[in-house]
Amino acid sequence: EPEVTQTPSHQVTQMGQEVILRCVPISNHLYFYWYRQILGQKVEFLVSFYNNEISEKSEIFDDQFSVERPDGSNFTLKIRSTKLEDSAMYFCASSDEGTGNYEQYFGPGTRLTVT
Amino acid sequence: KQEVTQIPAALSVPEGENLVLNCSFTDSAIYNLQWFRQDPGKGLTSLLLIQSSQREQTSGRLNASLDKSSGRSTLYIAASQPGDSATYLCAVRPPSYNTDKLIFGTGTRLQVFP
User: What one-character-per-residue DSSP string does A55-105 give?
Assistant: First the structure.
């Protein structure tokens, strides 16, 4: 069964460093999302992406964050200058709404630890 | 602003019991509602999606109902098994003309013991 994959599974970085989290959505999906979950808290929406542009972003998604679909298969989240409070589990998701299936499928997540 | 709450926060039951997990949302204007399972340190596995026009959805031992007017959904798990132990999350999607993001609840942590 097709699934969303994410790399790396765990990333440790120092405060102020740039990180890139990578995702491979399900191949025929056209809608892509990033969410995050700080330990012990709710899963929070960050950004949605369709047709090579951001559809919506949350208040969390400030100028330090960016997303890109560099090729036909990858979808990336970049954090330019990480802060301690960016430590969280980051989930990528994709959906295929064009077919009427609105279900969002999530990847296994990348645990980001900022020290 | 849409708020999603799940009760109870944690539940521990013996194997074989039938369970009901609750999800409440403050704004009845939703496009759909999705139930997920999250194992410790893992990603989210989609269990069921209910469109706003539907009353319920079933998958195996799982049945999810939706009462939009009262802002509630329930996830019914029949004949629970230890393998059902996980955190169950519900998430609502506001009407599609506004957004396609999901707004998540706090989750119910379920433990089924043999």
Answer: EEE-TT--TTEEEE--SSS-EEEEESS--GGG-EEEEEEEEEGGGTEEEEE
Distance (Å) from the alpha carbon of B62 to chain A's nearest alpha carbon: 17
The answer to whether A22 touches A7, Cβ cutoff 8 Å, is yes
Distance of CA B7 to the CA centre of its chain: 10
Residue A95 forms contact with B (CB below 8 Å): yes
pLDDT band at A106; cut points 50, 70, 90: very high
Residue type, A20: I
Decide: A91 and A34 in contact? Cβ < 8 Å: yes
What span, in angstroms and rounded, lies between the C-alpha atoms of A41 and B2? 17
**pLDDT (tens digit, 9 = 90+) per residue, A61-78?**
999 999 999 887 899 999
Cα A112 to Cα A73, A77, A82, A90, B78: the distances in Å are 22, 12, 10, 7, 36
The CA distance from B34 to A22, in Å, is 25
B114 at A interface, C-beta within 8 A:
no
The pLDDT tens digits for A26-70 are 998 989 999 999 998 999 999 999 988 999 999 999 999 999 998
* CB of B100 less than 8 A from some CB of A: yes
For A47, phi then psi, to 5°, come to: -160, 150
Chain B residues within 8 A of A111 when measuring between CB atoms: 41
